[in-house]
Design goal:
The complex is a heterodimer. Chain A is mainly beta. Chain A contains no helices and 11 strands. In chain A, the strands form 2 sheets. In chain A, strands 2, 4, 5, 9, 10 and 11 form a 6-stranded mixed β-sheet that branches. In chain A, strands 1-3-8-7-6 form a 5-stranded antiparallel β-sheet, with no helix packed on it. Chain A starts with a strand and ends with a strand. Helix content of chain B is about 0%, strand content about 50%. In chain B, the strands form 2 sheets. In chain B, strands 2, 4, 5, 6, 9, 10 and 11 form a 7-stranded mixed β-sheet that branches. Chain B has a 4-stranded antiparallel β-sheet with strand order 1-3-8-7, with no helix packed on it. In chain B, strand 4 and strand 5 form a beta hairpin. Classes of the chains: A mainly beta, B mainly beta. At the A-B interface, strand 4, strand 5, strand 9 and strand 10 of A face strand 5, strand 9 and strand 10 of B.
C-alpha cells in the first residue's frame, strides 16, 4: 500500500532558519498534500501539489515533488516560533482512494 | 476554524461502554472522512462517505465500529463495547470533490476518547 514517510522524525532549529522536511511514498499518486498540526488540535491544510507539478510556492512554503523518486520536500523559510508543530504529508492514489498519512515530522522552532 | 465541527471534544468512558461521536462537515461538501490518530502518529483512515453512501472501510474498522451519514450531511461514529485500545483522537474531515485531482480535506478539531 502507498504510505507517506516523513523524514526527519524531529527537527529543532532557531528562529529565522529554514526548515526542510521530506516525504517518501510507494505507489502512483494523484496528488500529495502537506498538513500542519499543533499539539492536540486538528490538521490544517498547507499546500497541495499535483502529480504533474514539480514545485509549488505558498508564502514562506515551498514544496517540490519528484515522482520518479516518489518523494516530496517541504521547505519553510525564515521560520518563526509559531511554526512549531507536527507536519504530515498525505498522498491520494490514482483512483481517488483514501488519504494515507505518514507519521509526521515534529518541528520545534526555538526563539 | 475550518468550518468542520465535532462533538464532543473530549469523552471519557469506562471499558465496555458504547460511545457515539458526531461530525458536522462544511455544508456543501459531499465527502466526509473519519480518521483515528494516536499519540505521535499520523492519522489512520477509518472510513469515508460520498453523500450518504459509505464507500470504503478500513480493516481497522472492526465490527464494534459503525458509521452513518443518513442524509448526506452530518455523520456519526459509534464504538460499541469500548476497549482501552480505542483510546485515541478521532478526526473528521470533509471535502468537495467532483474529480479526484484536487481533494483538499478540511479537518475538524477532533474528539479525544479516553477509555478507562
Amino acid at each position: 500500500s502507498q504510505q507517506g514517510e516523513e523524514d526527519p522524525q524531529a527537527l529543532s532549529i532557531q528562529e529565522g532558519e529554514n526548515a526542510t522536511m521530506n516525504c517518501s511514498y510507494k505507489t502512483s499518486i494523484n496528488n500529495l498534500q502537506w498538513y500542519r498540526q499543533n499539539s492536540g488540535r486538528g490538521l490544517v491544510h498547507l499546500i497541495l501539489i499535483r502529480s504533474n507539478e514539480r514545485e509549488k510556492h505558498s508564502g514562506r512554503l515551498r514544496v517540490t515533488l519528484d515522482t520518479s523518486k516518489k518523494s516530496s520536500s517541504l521547505l519553510i523559510t525564515a521560520s518563526r516560533a509559531a511554526d512549531t508543530a507536527s507536519y504530515f504529508c498525505a498522498t491520494e492514489g490514482n483512483y481517488g482512494q483514501n488519504f494515507v498519512f505518514g507519521p509526521g515530522t515534529r518541528l520545534s522552532v526555538l526563539p | 476554524d475550518t468550518g468542520v465541527s465535532q462533538d464532543p471534544r473530549h469523552k471519557i468512558t469506562k471499558r465496555g461502554q458504547n460511545v457515539t461521536f458526531r461530525c458536522d462537515p462544511i455544508s456543501e461538501h459531499n465527502r466526509l472522512y473519519w480518521y483515528r490518530q494516536t499519540l505521535g502518529q499520523g492519522p489512520e483512515f477509518l472510513t469515508y462517505f460520498q453523500n450518504e453512501a459509505q464507500l470504503e472501510k478500513s480493516r481497522l474498522l472492526s465490527d464494534r465500529f459503525s458509521a452513518e451519514r443518513p442524509k448526506g450531511s452530518f455523520s456519526t461514529l459509534e464504538i460499541q463495547r469500548t476497549e482501552q485500545g480505542d483510546s485515541a483522537m478521532y478526526l473528521c474531515a470533509s471535502s468537495l470533490i467532483w474529480t479526484s485531482v484536487d481533494n483538499e480535506q478540511f479537518f475538524g478539531p477532533g474528539t479525544r476518547l479516553t477509555v478507562l
